[in-house]
Design a protein that fits this description.
heterodimer; A: 95 residues; mainly alpha; two-stranded antiparallel sheet; 4% strand; B: 485 residues; alpha/beta; Amidase signature (AS) enzymes; eleven-stranded mixed sheet; 15 helices; 14% strand
């Protein structure tokens, strides 16, 4: 398997988490050791083995198409950090 | 009133309600008093709404299966109108707008959801030290951790603050704290219990389950919360089962118990090993046939788990973005800044670490080497159990390789912390059920620390698993243990 080439800063940006310089250094060292441990899996013969995503493979589960009450709009909007006019307010996303 | 209502099991509480020896309001009041005096030491509860609980108790229908019985709730499970923060700053102050299915079912069974119990942030941890809110102390020795991530649930049960509690188990988070706190903890099979309203950590592994001071009480709570839910497509349509019906047996005759040789590893505490071996001998005295078995892929379980669980967590936790609910950073310059800083400020170190690991193993170029490979080894781990269950009815092994360790002992070493889950993780990967029951104590100075015995059962054989655990628990005398507080 691939050698660990973990660029913590780049991955953190993909994950949308800002990290301090200190966190980058600490996590890099700690996760390096974790990835080293995980390298163990390279020893397992997995030829011809199907992956398991779920313990019980169930597919295309649909519930009956019956309308049920959803959450109250006001109640849900009240949870937003900023809201106005029945909308959640965020910084401008389109230039 | 002479009876200590806090010491009672669920059937004892119900007998008292029905004979009018005491009322549900008196029971919840006694628990509230107990919490007031003991929780400054234990720190299990993040919040509780005693007035609501009294109101529910005064209206309780005691003819129902759990009528009037208070149940503590892990802070990851939504109860309408109550805080639901997963012990994270990113959800600080968040109140759930609906009931989780397990809560709706507890209410329908007459139970009273009571209090919010501490946990590792987003259930990531094995000691509850990752809570952003407070430290929870082991009621048997308050200088030590209660286990995790459902550490608040286990500590509250062991401290007699509630007769039972709900936890969630992704890699051992019910069984390991139950073992370390001397109570019983059940992880149901994948698909047995709906997760609707459980804050998702790793969706292919998460299950909700009960913690209590007896197996019988766990069985009673499981009976209330189990079943198909149209709101969780992974919950299975199964015939209704009475999990209490098979309990009360005096022996284990005819039961074949598998002893996996890989579960008695170097590095485990020799006192835990001795305690578990004694318990296995006792199972044999009770009539069980002990067979040595092999689960050859055991050594890979921790690695597989930390790939799959972090990958799924990185996806699940993307919903905490500071937009629709939860914490938002002040004065964001643009949307990217809003995401980056809200999540930086809201998540603790362990959560960030796991999100980064999970994002990495899913990232382009590494997916096949890590995630896909882990899923394939997961298949092999599952096959190990399928093969073992051809020749045994259940597996017996330790729950945790060591007793509760001192608070602060290993917070700087994530890998060491991850290895604490070595005996519990495989059950989640395989989707089978597992239970931890107390099997002895280890003396540590003036204190004694509980040791847990784990039984692992076939997928969806909770009835068989509970029967074995119940027989062992009552015959061994390690039943209804209460920490001296």
């Amino acid at each position: 398997m691939a050698a660990p080439e973990l660029d913590v800063q780049a991955v953190a940006r993909l994950a949308r988490v800002a990290l301090s310089e200190e966190e980058v250094a600490t996590f890099g060292a700690q996760l390096g050791r974790v990835l080293e441990h995980i390298e163990l899996l390279g020893r397992v013969d997995i030829s011809g083995v199907e992956p398991t995503a779920h313990a019980n493979p169930v597919f295309n589960v649909l519930r009956d198409d019956e309308p049920i009450a959803g959450l109250q709009k006001e109640e849900v909007l009240a949870l937003a950090p900023r809201q106005a006019n029945s909308l959640v307010i965020v910084p401008k996303v389109i230039e | 009133m002479n009876t200590d209502l806090c010491a009672l099991s669920i059937p004892e509480l119900q007998a008292g309600f029905r004979s009018k020896a005491f009322t549900p309001v008196e029971a919840i009041t006694a628990l509230e008093q107990r919490i007031s005096t003991t929780d400054p030491t234990v720190g299990a509860f993040l919040s509780r709404n005693f007035e609501h609980a009294v109101e529910a108790a005064s209206n309780a229908d005691i003819s129902l299966p759990l009528g009037g019985v208070p149940i503590g709730i892990k802070d990851a499970i939504a109860v309408r109108g109550e805080f639901c923060t997963c012990a994270s700053k990113i959800l600080s102050g968040f109140r759930a707008p609906y009931d989780a299915t397990v809560i709706a079912r507890l209410r329908a069974a007459g139970a009273i959801p009571f209090g919010r119990l501490n946990m590792d942030e987003f259930a990531m941890g094995s000691s509850t030290e990752n809570s952003s809110c407070q430290v929870t102390h082991n009621p048997w020795d308050p200088t030590r951790i209660p286990g995790g991530s459902s550490g608040g649930s286990a500590a509250a049960v062991a401290a007699s603050q509630v007769p039972a509690a709900l936890g969630s188990d992704t890699g051992g988070s019910i069984r390991q704290p139950a073992a370390l706190c001397g109570c019983v903890g059940l992880k149901p099979s994948y698909g047995r219990v709906s997760r609707y309203g459980l804050v998702a950590f790793a969706s292919s592994l998460d299950q909700i389950g009960p913690l209590a001071r007896t197996t019988r009480d766990c069985a009673a709570v499981l009976g209330a919360i189990a079943g198909k839910d149209p709101r969780d497509s992974t919950s299975l349509e199964l015939p209704p089962e009475d999990f209490l019906a098979g309990l009360g047996k005096d022996d284990l005759k005819g039961i074949r118990l598998g002893l996996p040789k890989e579960y008695f590893v170097d590095g485990m505490d020799p006192r835990v090993k001795a305690s578990v071996e004694k318990a296995v001998d006792f199972c044999a005295q009770l009539g069980a046939e002990i067979r040595e078995i092999s689960l050859p892929h055991t050594e890979y379980a921790v690695s597989v788990y930390y790939i799959i669980a972090t990958a799924e967590a990185s996806a699940n936790l993307s919903r905490f973005d500071g937009v629709r609910y939860g914490r938002r950073a002040e004065n964001p310059s643009d949307i990217m800044d809003l995401y980056l800083r809200s999540r930086a400020e809201g998540f603790g170190s362990e959560v960030k670490r796991r999100i980064i690991l999970g994002t990495y193993v899913l990232s382009s170029g590494y997916y096949d080497a890590y995630y896909l490979r882990a899923q394939k080894v997961r298949t092999l781990i599952r096959r190990d159990f399928t093969a073992a269950f051809d020749s045994v009815d259940a597996i017996v092994c330790p729950t945790s390789p060591e007793p509760a360790f001192p608070i602060g002992d290993r917070t700087d070493d994530p890998l060491k912390m991850y290895l604490a889950d070595i005996f519990t993780i495989a059950a989640n990967l395989a989707g089978i059920c597992g239970i931890s029951v107390p099997c002895g104590f280890i003396g540590e100075g003036e204190k004694k620390l509980p040791v847990g015995l784990q039984f692992l059962g076939k997928p969806l054989d909770e009835a068989g698993l509970l029967r074995i655990a119940d027989t062992y628990e009552r015959a061994s005398g390690f039943t209804n243990l209460r920490a001296p507080l």
